[in-house]
Specification:
Elements lengths: L4 H4 L8 E4 L7 H8 L8 E5 L17 E5 L7 H5 L13 H6 L7 E6 L7 E3 L7 H7 L2 E6 L7 E2 L2 E3 L5 E4 L14 H11 L7 E3 L4 H8 L8 E2 L3 E2 L4 H5 L15 E3 L1 E2 L3 H7 L5 E3 L2 H4 L2 H4 L5 E6 L2 E3 L4 E2 L2 E2 L2 E2 L6 H10 L4 E5 L11 E2 L17 E4 L2 E4 L5 H10 L3 H11 L1
Parallel strand pairs: 1-2, 1-4, 2-3, 4-6, 6-9, 7-15, 10-11, 10-16, 12-14, 13-15, 16-21, 17-22, 21-23
Antiparallel strand pairs: 5-8, 17-18, 19-20, 23-24
Helix pairs in contact: 6-7, 13-14
Amino acid sequence: MITTPEEAVKCINSNNRVFIHSAVAVPIKLVQAMTDRYSELKNVRIYSMHTEGEAPYADKKMEGSFIVNPFFIGQNIRENIQSGRGSYIPIFLSEAPSLFRNGSIPLDVALISVSPPDKHGFCSLGTSVDISLAAVQSAKFIVAQINKYVPRSHGDGFIHISKIHFAIEEDIPLPEINSHPISAIEKEIGKNISNLIENGATLQMGIGAIPNAVLSCLTNHKDLGIHSEMFSDGILPLIESGVINGSNKEKHRNSVVGSFAIGSKKLYDFIDDNPFIKMLDFSYVNNVEVIRKNPKVTAINSAIEIDLSGQVCADSIGGKMFSGVGGQMDFIRGASLSEGGKPIIALASTTKNGESKIVPFLKSGAGVVTTRAHVHWVVTEYGAINLYGKSIDERSKLLASIAHPKHREWLLKTAF
């Protein structure tokens, strides 16, 4: 039923559980209409992955009306979580869809963005299938913002118009996340990682300067594939030049596989009605058994800090939650089991304040995302080392060797 935003969100009641579509697919008008009702709503739990743009339900004045329970913490809700008004749900992304499907988190309402229906009545979830498909399949009410700017992506994310309970028609361009300039340090990290990537490898990487730096160094590679929970504009030049063609993959050969995409209008236009791009569910894309079947899976993930035994903290700064577990462990494990695979943790050697990110001990309260038993390659601007099969003593020396020179003596003394 096509209606107004105000009417569409009347199905949301106090004590409901509401899902908000991920990343750049946030249905802005529906979120605004929901939060406009904050004075009459109490204890509405908001579930989401990372979302772009404003998150008015996380504002302090909404306390008591909305409780934010994300599976990943973005900048727009970080203050809410760190102040204790909301609370993060730790989960591997591969398992997150099952929370909805098996009823661990019963959903009342899913707020989504979709493309206009095709001649058969099918809309698309566009840039974000991830956990959003599971939310659509599980929620009692599906409320959609039909938006011509949402690309019609191939893959899992189709929903028939008849399955949507309430819909509005609002054409709003998707948020564009432009790449930041690559620093000298990031260029060096990119070069060090690119030297580890073999022809015919299947890549997983996220958004940001380091992944873009890596991709910019791969112009002379051949027959690369993409099987990644997310991708951005950095892959486009390599697809256009034929470097990324997916010809060596075992799963979805000759195509790019992802769960969500963040980038520019050029990226969204490239996804639109493009059979080369497959947008699939997290429970498949991040499944270790699926990942490992591709050859030479090279998984590039980041860290906040790593200790001298190889424990990787990637979700918190001490006891303060910063982001989330995400898909790091899914792909670290999948890459390690792939034939010729390389799991990589990439990080600058120091923080902006000059503190070492390679440390004797993780900060008090820090969470371990990748355990010392799972870690393989670690890369900084000073080199690449492989900790797999190495003792604690050996690891300490190797990690100190790629730390910033001013911290190496301190790290070795502390290790001793």
